[in-house]
Write a structure and sequence with these properties.
Layout (H helix, E strand, L loop, with lengths): L4 E4 L4 E3 L14 E6 L18 H18 E12 L10 H12 L2 E9 L10 H4 L10 E8 L6 H4 L1
Parallel strand pairs: 3-4
Antiparallel strand pairs: 1-2, 4-6, 5-6
Helix pairs in contact: 1-2
């Protein structure tokens, strides 16, 4: 087994490698990619700078989303788990911005799943009393953006 392949069987391969550098994946070979990329909120990763300018973060996202697009089969899907928005380092509409980038690459939009984390204890709205005009509010949800490449597979075709 190759060093970057974490697990592999007839139907599934899990690869632990840099999305921008890996050579473990052939173009047009993947049916489904499910990913939760770095959120750019200064998490201490061993191999990734998670404190980029927002412009650099979007460029990084464009690069790895482009690789995913090429790896997917024509009827492939991408499920992208990302924050709806973020306030750390400035208010940004992450979900909308990454969806726009993906569509610019060629992905088609299918739907958005709202994932209610059920943990509101770390959420605040300090601005509502410190600065009523600029509340610091973080939605207690993440989104899973479902995108597809070119072909929609109907339920009839699957049965």
């Amino acid at each position: 087994m190759k060093a970057h392949i974490f697990f592999e069987n007839e139907w599934l391969k899990i690869i632990n490698d840099d999305v921008l550098k890996t050579e473990e994946i052939e173009d047009h070979s993947i049916d489904l990619i499910v990913t939760s990329p770095p959120y750019n909120v200064d998490i201490k990763y061993n191999s990734h700078n998670d404190k980029l300018s927002y412009r650099d973060y979007l460029e990084f996202s464009r690069k790895w989303l482009t690789r995913c697009y090429h790896w997917l089969k024509e009827d492939g899907r991408l499920c992208l788990n990302i924050p709806l928005d973020k306030n750390k380092g400035g208010q940004q509409s992450v979900g909308a911005d990454l969806t726009t980038i993906a569509k610019g690459i060629g992905f088609k939009y299918h739907s958005t799943i709202i994932w209610n984390e059920g943990n509101i204890s770390r959420r605040t709205a300090w601005g509502s009393w410190l600065s009523a005009s600029a509340p610091y509010v973080i939605a207690p949800v993440e989104v899973i953006i479902v995108l597809y490449k070119r072909t929609v597979v109907s339920a009839k075709k699957l049965s």
